[in-house]
Amino acid sequence: MTRKLSCREILDNLSAYVDAELDPSLCEEIEAHMQGCNPCVAFLNTLKKTVVLVRYSGEPEQVPQEVHIDLHRFLRDRCKDDGPGKES
Ligand SMILES: [Zn+2]
Q: What's the 58 CA to ligand 1 centre distance in angstroms?
């Protein structure tokens, strides 16, 4: 029985997902979530670009400040939606 992941859980696992470090089952769940969640898809695309840039620039792997800021803003916005209470 699979439980639906929230956007927050998706985001928590996204960097491992991009690095292909996740269990295949978790990858599938993320991909399934992406089917119906445009904000997560947009964030994944941003993260992928960032990872590629960091890799090719030869810098030590770290998430640029800009992405941290975006992630926090994104999570704040999503948390409002994902918070307790009924779906609207
Ligand atoms: Zn989502």
A: 30
Asked whether 5 and 18 are in contact (CB, 8 A), the reply is no
Q: What's the CA-to-centroid distance between 73 and ligand 1, angstroms? A: 14
| Ligand 1 centroid from CA 10, angstroms | 7
- Verdict on whether the full-model pTM lies above 0.90: no
The alpha carbon of 9 and the centre of ligand 1 are apart by a number of angstroms equal to 9
Burial 18-29 (b: 16+ CB within 10 A, else e): eeeebeeebeeb
Question: pLDDT digit string (tens) for 15-45?
Answer: 888 888 999 999 999 999 999 999 999 999 9
Those residues with Cβ within 8 angstroms of residue 41's Cβ, 6 or more apart along the chain or in another chain: 34
Residue 6 Cα to ligand 1 midpoint, Å, equals 6
